[in-house]
Amino acid sequence: MKLRDLLRIANRNLLRNKLRTFLTIMAIFVGAFTLVMTNALGDGMKDYVENQVKNREGANILFVRKKFETPNSGRKADEPIEYKEKTQDEAGNVVDPNSYSLDITQMESLKKDLPEIKTITPRFDIDGEYITLDGIKKYKLNLGMLSEGIKQKVEVGSTITGTGEIIIPLALGKTFSPDIKTLIGKDVTIAYEVGQSGEIKMMQLKIAGVATKGFMANGNCFVDADSAKRIYEDQHRNSDGFNKFWNFTFQLDTSNDKRIGEIKRKLDEKGFSAETFADQEKRTYDAIGILQIGLNFFAFIALLAASFGIINTLIVAVMERTKEIGLQKALGMGSEKIFLLFTLESILIGFWGAIVGVIGGIIVGTFANILTTAYLSSFEGYSLFSFRLFSIVWVILLVCVIAFLAGVLPAFKASRLNPIEALRYE
Amino acid sequence: MLEAVNLYRTFTSDGVDYEVLKNVNLKINQGECVAIIGKSGSGKSTLMHLLACLDTPTLGRIMFEEQDVSILSEKERNLLRNEKFGFVFQQFFLNGRETVLENVLFPLRIRGMSQYKMIRAGMDALEAVDLKAKEDKKAKDLSGGEKQRVCIARALVGIPKVIFADEPTGNLDSNTGELIEKMLFDLNREKGITLIIVTHDSDLAKKCNRIIELKDGEIIKDKIKKGKKFEEAQKVDELTKTDSGQTSETSITS
Q1: What CATH number has the domain spanning B2-250?
Q2: Which parts of A141-198 are beta strand (E)?
Q3: Is the pLDDT of residue A70 over 70?
Q4: Do A423 and B89 count as a contact with CB atoms less than 8 A apart?
Q5: Is A48 within 8 Å of A218 (Cβ atoms)?
């Protein structure tokens, strides 16, 4: 018997009792719909993260900080932490093992053992007041820094390559000049407060580029590390933790995964945690993935419930069609074909349920995206639901597999029918 | 062509064995028209199911075209039934929602024949039962006689060697029944298809060329029509002793 004929017969059988088939498909629809939505929610988050990070890159970059003592490093969560005496290193700096903030010279000493480290940039904590191009019109300034070695994607111009440079966000660039190309190489003036005194200091910087849209670059201006250092020193010279930093950016002379892995391992031994861009991304993805699995679990329960609907529908169908199955067998249709016929029917139920669920999900999700845009305006580039082809195909396949499994029992029952008994069946 | 050798069939129900057929020996030749009669419970249906490869004997053998079919695999038996046998049942077993033609084509669909050849064969079969005009009617809209004619067309469409008819006129009024009988006998005569009719209708049985009567699972009479009268057929036990040349005596050439 040809598969096409079997499919046609399976379809006709499903159409015999349209209401029953419809209701069974609806049960599957609910499960498939939920699965599509939970996947889309996770994918929406992943898209957002991708948008955030895609503007920054640097394969040879490590983000380093002192390792936190976490409960899984052997210490109980509520166990008191032992105080460690402060020591001095060879250069005469005070080393406080109780603090997570570190001196730049302490970090520089790592270079001795790890010659792969090209530069070390601490994360300077800097604040801006305003930025102006013509000296008349001032705009509020959110200031950040770009550590050495990190590339910021730009619409025009280039990433920061030298000292005294700045990258401005796209919206600001367009405000300065509709033709943002003309801005490259021009000088801007930024202003910042010195200490708590209220004294304002100015700095002239050259526009290196206008940043491509993205989470970090949407409102922030970025300056080079040297300029950031100068601002930092002006702002923090008199404060407590001056020249102590929590976070450092290492630029390596290699972007080879294996060698970076080796460096990470060595840093780990010395009590530092080091992450690449890829690690950071993966960490976020893993968190989203776990959330997604959790959500999918509920959708899966809905599908499981629906699969009992399929079993029920098909068992009733087997009883109704006992005589017909008897005849089909008498006329030479093999048990395996009967089995195939019934599993095809259950797969078809699953398939249509999945298709309706996907269509319903996309419609509802698209509406939800439109409705939530206003609420999510601060998260530019974030859609609540994102529909990826891969996820959709995956949902359809999964539902079909579940439906097939649900069809196995009735199909087996049908295939085991004895033709003589079946023909005699009243 | 179709032969039963020392056939036993035992059914077990609630731990009790029922011997439905006991030592049945039978030989049916190509082109014969055989009626299997007997009261209900005599084992006539079981005998037909065994001959038609729908069931397997507890003991003994079924030979079809010199081959022991009781040792065939399920797949081979399915193929045999599909290609060599046709079935006509008392209860029609048509799919009411499908068209007449689609019902007739079903055995060929199982066979996996090409669409073009299949439809030609289907139309030929419908022509043979005079239902060509109703090919696209739904089967449920037909009268009882028409339904049974569709069944005959379905039995015929695969060009079988044997047609098994289980009470073919049981659900029909006598006029329609006669039409169906005539149709079956014509097929037997004109196309040489061996006809095996299971019935308790003695009038129908008498129109066949051979009557096999069963009682309590045993053949008690096996009569062959000679002219207008029936005569006792040669015992199969004796047949098996003689060589094949002599067995041809029992074949019917009416």
Answers
A1: 3.40.50.300
A2: 142-146, 151-152, 154-157, 165-168, 187-194
A3: no
A4: yes
A5: no
Q: Minimal Cα–Cα distance from A7 to chain B, Å?
A: 12
Does pLDDT of B120 surpass 90? Answer: yes
d(CA B61, CA A245) in angstroms, rounded, equals 95
Is residue A206 within a helix (H) or strand (E), and if so which, with residue range?
Answer: strand A199-211
User: What is the distance between the alpha carbons of residues A371 and A380, in angstroms, rounded to a whole number?
Assistant: 15
* C-alpha–C-alpha distance, residues A345 and B253, integer Å: 51
Average pLDDT, chain A: 87
Q: Which residue of A has its CA nearest to B95?
A: A324
Interface-testing mutation among B69, B93, B152, with chain A (most A C-beta atoms within 10 A): B93
CA-closest candidate to residue A250, choices A223, A270, A277, A283: A277
| A331·B97 Cβ contact <8 A | no
Angle formed at CA A338 by CA A333 and CA A343, multiple of 5 degrees: 155
Predicted local distance difference test score (pLDDT) of residue A318: 95
pTM, two decimal places: 0.77
Confidence band of A304 (pLDDT split at 50, 70, 90):
very high
- Maximum alpha-carbon separation in chain B: 54
Domain boundaries, chain A: 3-53+282-424, 60-123+251-275, 125-245
Is A332 close to B81, i.e. CB distance below 8 A?
yes
- What pLDDT is recorded for position B254? 38
Nearest by Cα to B107 from B90, B131, B125, B91 = B125
* Residue of higher predicted confidence among A79 and B103: B103
Q: Do A337 and B49 touch (CB under 8 A)?
A: no
Q: Would you call A331 and B107 a contact, using CB atoms and an 8 Å cutoff?
A: yes
